[in-house]
From TrEMBL:
Residues 2-166, 202-377 form the EngA-type G domain. Transmembrane segments: none annotated. Belongs to the TRAFAC class TrmE-Era-EngA-EngB-Septin-like GTPase superfamily. EngA (Der) GTPase family. The lineage of its organism: Bacteria, Pseudomonadati, Pseudomonadota, Alphaproteobacteria, Rhodospirillales. PANTHER family: GTPASE DER. It comes from the Bacteria. Keywords: GTP-binding, Nucleotide-binding, Repeat, Ribosome biogenesis. GTP 1 binds at residues 8-15, 55-59, 118-121. This is GTPase Der. Pfam families: KH_dom-like, MMR_HSR1. The keyword Nucleotide-binding applies. Gene3D superfamilies: 3.30.300.20, P-loop containing nucleotide triphosphate hydrolases (3.40.50.300). One of its GO terms (biological process) is ribosome biogenesis. GTP 2 binds at residues 208-215, 255-259, 320-323.
Length: 469
């Protein structure tokens, strides 16, 4: 599939065009210059034409080790990978010296360039459209990414660079459907399709506070500087999905922006980044909560963990920078004790210690991700569940309500991802929360479901003597 890179100076509308081509609001868009920092990929489409589209950071004239210079190097890599580059200018602002410098830089490379004069809706962009001829890339395409004007002209311009029969590939943000199980199926256990196949890669999101090493971890897996890293906190703003393969299994690694306490978030862009991270958690199957091993489980870490559990995603706790910890055994003991006290709703959550910088225990984290994903997809037959329920009731009967014993009629698994069970009982609304916790803990221990979120819904059983309406 052909690769199309969107390039230009900051704040000319690159992310708006990216969203227009992929048909979704994936990239963060704001009037603040320099919002985009990492390369973002998606499947673009214009009518029947399909291609891979790259959103890039705005070109900055910086060549040192600053953040702007590292962003520029990321943009240069995108241009080298692309089959064609779309150079955007702001037609309303006209051609600027930075536009001219970037155009000259592109001319030195081998990547073909198409010039788009963005924000050409109305008459305000006409002078800038005429100025664009001075860049030496032929006829500029009048365009409006905001309103979708000029797509037919862009289609015609891209046609020579796009193969006639592009291969179909999945979108980096594709939503995997929920696996629902028919409640009438009471026979054999049904396992969900295994993750890691070309049709269904494991969706693995890395979340945590700023500057704990999320981007460094993904770069270490990929073996290249695919994502921006550095000593500055909060470099990542967009959630970036990267397809990768580990031991023959496909994985979609999702890097996310660091999450701070809401009270400390005041800038609009950071609020958008936090919302994008929460959206990435929604799309993920397994979420790795990355901690700084020297600042284990702060209040914000626990808040993030609870959000992941509330969304029903499989959770792994990973303590990064483990090489810098002096007393490793004591630190690990404190971490496990804190988890037992603060995350009582998720007993047995996996804990992995690692060093992204040194490359230690990275395979162990992936092995744990596939193991917990299998539990997250586990299906238990209704026959086994009801045999288990009889034993639980015999060991500890439900309490009385209004002078009558609450009867638990039967239980079945409604769906997986996460494992969700429906318990039918008389006087369902009177079953106390403590007894529900007793049943949930029994499900975890007896069926080996420790470490994944469980949901148990108590429903009112039908009264056979009640007249039908």
């Amino acid at each position: 599939m052909a690769i199309v890179a969107i390039v230009g100076r900051p704040n000319v509308g690159k992310s708006t065009l990216f969203n227009r081509l992929v048909g979704k609001r994936l990239a963060i868009v704001d009037d603040t210059p320099g919002v985009t920092r990492d390369r973002r990929e998606g499947e673009g489409r214009i009518a029947d034409m399909k291609f891979r589209v790259l959103d890039t950071a705005g070109f900055e004239d910086a060549y040192d080790d600053s953040l702007e210079a590292r962003m520029r190097r990321q943009t240069e890599r995108a241009i080298q990978e692309a089959d064609v580059a779309l150079l955007l200018i702001d037609a309303r602002a006209g051609v600027t010296p930075l536009d001219e410098k970037f155009a000259a830089l592109l001319r030195k490379g081998n990547t073909p360039v198409l010039l788009l004069a963005n924000k050409c809706e109305g008459k305000a962009g006409q002078p800038g459209l005429l100025e664009a001829y001075s860049l030496g890339y032929g006829d500029p395409i009048p365009f409006s990414a905001e309103h979708g004007e000029g797509l037919s002209e862009l289609y015609d311009a891209l046609e020579p660079f796009i193969p006639d029969d592009p291969k179909e590939i999945g979108s980096a943000e594709a939503i995997l459907p929920e696996i629902d199980i028919d409640l009438t199926d009471e026979d054999a256990e049904v396992e969900a399709p295994e993750a890691g196949t070309p049709e269904r890669p494991l969706q693995l999101a890395i979340v945590g506070r700023p500057n704990v090493g999320k981007s460094t971890l993904i770069n270490r897996y990929l073996g290249e500087d695919r994502l921006l890293t550095g000593p500055e906190a909060g470099i990542t703003r967009d959630s970036i999905a990267v397809d990768w393969e580990w031991k023959g299994k496909r994985v979609r690694l999702i890097d996310t922006a660091g999450l701070r306490k809401r009270a400390r978030v005041s800038e609009k862009v950071e609020k958008l980044s936090a919302a994008d991270t929460r959206r990435a958690v929604d799309f993920a199957e397994v979420v790795v909560l990355l901690l700084d091993a020297q600042e284990l489980l702060e209040k914000q870490d626990l808040t993030i963990a609870r959000q992941v559990i509330d969304e029903g995603r499989a959770l792994i706790i990973a303590a990064n920078k483990w090489d810098a910890v002096e007393d490793k055994q004591e630190t690990l003991t404190k971490l496990r004790e804190r988890l037992q006290i603060s995350l009582t709703q998720l007993k047995g959550v996996p804990v992995v210690t690692l060093s992204a910088k040194e490359g230690r225990n990275l395979d162990k984290l992936l092995s744990e991700a596939f193991r917990i994903h299998k539990l997250w997809n586990k299906r238990i037959s209704t026959a086994k569940l009801n045999g288990w329920l009889q034993g639980m009731v015999a060991a500890h009967a439900p309490p009385l309500s209004k002078g009558r014993r609450i009867k638990l009629r039967y239980v079945t698994q409604a769906k997986t991802r996460p494992p969700t069970f429906a318990l039918f009982a008389s006087q369902a609304e009177s079953l106390p929360e403590s007894y529900i916790r007793y049943l949930v803990n029994g499900l975890r221990e007896d069926f080996g479901l420790e470490g994944v979120p469980l949901r148990l819904h108590v429903r009112q059983g039908k009264n056979p003597y009640q007249p039908k309406r």
